């Protein structure tokens, strides 16, 4: 039995049409499945929790998220018994950093074929974000600063929905990203890791905590991040003037920015972040509120992700 958790509103409603096509394939192949549609923010958490609660070593459960990176993080947050879950992903969103980092197909039909036909899995780290005594999970990245400010503005601006109607969702991120690049003031920030780091940075532009190498639609902020190594990769960018910062961001698309003065890379399994004033935080591109303190750690158990043979 395959359990599909579908966000029909991903990519401004395109997710519903994509699922209609995928459903026809499942029916043609006489696949035994259940479909569960999300109806509001956080619904995928509830669906995932209910479906996964019966998973056992002798009776593993296969759950497939159909949506964008934000759908994945909700499904992960709700998962119970992750060691006994086979997890699949079919992308219908606009970012798809999860696919870039794990080698999954960006094509929904090809991704479905992987779920149905592959017996190959990747042992996937599950990252956990704790803010104000509330813990949720994410797959790709969490951040504060530039990337989070872009995610926050995207969430409250009508620009993305408008652009998605014409298949130009990435352009919305570009426009808002350029605005934030020149408008966002740098901040001071301190971090503490379980690897023994206790560091304070000034004039920070971006801090990203990465489980995977890509975020933000293709930026390789931590180009050596491995989603199965049980480590978090952290980048802090500080003390750069705008022209140098612009070049640094451009080169990060190719993972060629790491030798810039002002780029700091850390590795850990747990990190705590503090800022003097509340700043926007994101997880997998979804706004996670304004915070002064938060921590990120790795769950004890990895998740088995279905990948191509």
Automatic annotation (TrEMBL):
Q: Which residues form the DAGKc domain?
A: 1-133
Q: Which GO terms describe its biological process?
A: phospholipid biosynthetic process
Report the source organism. Answer: Blautia glucerasea
Under the heading NCBIfam families, the entry gives:
YegS/Rv2252/BmrU family lipid kinase (TIGR00147)
Q: What InterPro entries has UniProt attached to this entry?
A: ATP-NAD_kinase_N, Diacylglycerol/lipid_kinase, Diacylglycerol_kinase_cat_dom, Lipid_Phosphate_FormReg, NAD/diacylglycerol_kinase_sf, YegS/DAGK_C
Name this polypeptide is given: Lipid kinase YtlR
Provide the family line: Belongs to the diacylglycerol/lipid kinase family.
The EC designation for this entry is: 2.7.1.-
Fetch the Pfam families from UniProt.
Answer: DAGK_cat, YegS_C
Keywords, in A-Z order:
ATP-binding, Kinase, Lipid biosynthesis, Lipid metabolism, Nucleotide-binding, Phospholipid biosynthesis, Phospholipid metabolism, Transferase
Supply the Gene3D superfamilies for this chain. 2.60.200.40, Probable inorganic polyphosphate/atp-NAD kinase, domain 1
Q: Which SMART domains match?
A: DAGKc
Task: Extract the GO molecular function terms from the UniProt entry.
Answer: ATP binding; kinase activity
* Cofactor(s) for this UniProt protein: Mg(2+)
């Amino acid at each position: 039995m395959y359990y599909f958790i579908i966000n029909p509103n991903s990519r401004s409603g395109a997710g519903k049409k994509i699922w209609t096509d995928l459903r026809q394939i499942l029916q043609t192949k006489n696949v035994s499945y259940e479909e569960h549609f999300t109806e509001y923010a956080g619904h995928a958490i509830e669906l995932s929790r209910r479906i996964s609660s019966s998973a056992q070593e002798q009776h593993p459960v296969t759950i497939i998220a159909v949506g964008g990176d934000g759908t994945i993080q909700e499904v992960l947050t709700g998962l119970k018994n992750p060691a006994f879950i086979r997890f699949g992903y079919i992308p219908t969103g606009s970012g798809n950093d999860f696919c870039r980092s794990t080698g999954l197909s960006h094509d929904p039909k090809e991704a479905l074929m992987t779920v149905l036909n592959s017996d190959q899995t990747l042992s996937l780290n599950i990252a956990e974000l704790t803010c104000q005594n509330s813990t949720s999970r994410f797959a790709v990245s969490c951040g504060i600063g530039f990337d989070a400010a872009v995610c926050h503005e995207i969430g409250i601006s009508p620009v993305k929905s408008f652009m998605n109607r014409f298949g130009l969702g990435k352009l919305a991120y570009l426009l808002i990203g350029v605005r934030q690049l020149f408008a966002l003031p740098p901040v001071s920030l301190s971090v503490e890791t379980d690897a023994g780091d206790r560091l304070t940075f000034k004039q920070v532009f971006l801090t990203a905590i990465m489980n995977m190498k890509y975020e933000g639609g293709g930026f390789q902020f931590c180009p050596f991040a491995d989603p199965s190594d049980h480590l978090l990769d952290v980048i802090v960018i500080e003390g750069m003037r705008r022209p140098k910062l612009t070049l640094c961001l451009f080169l990060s698309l190719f993972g060629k920015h790491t030798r810039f003065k002002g780029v700091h890379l850390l590795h850990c399994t747990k990190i705590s972040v503090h800022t003097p004033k509340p700043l926007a935080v994101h997880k997998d591109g979804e706004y996670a509120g304004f915070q002064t303190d938060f921590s990120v750690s790795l769950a004890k158990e990895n998740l088995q992700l279905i990948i191509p043979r």
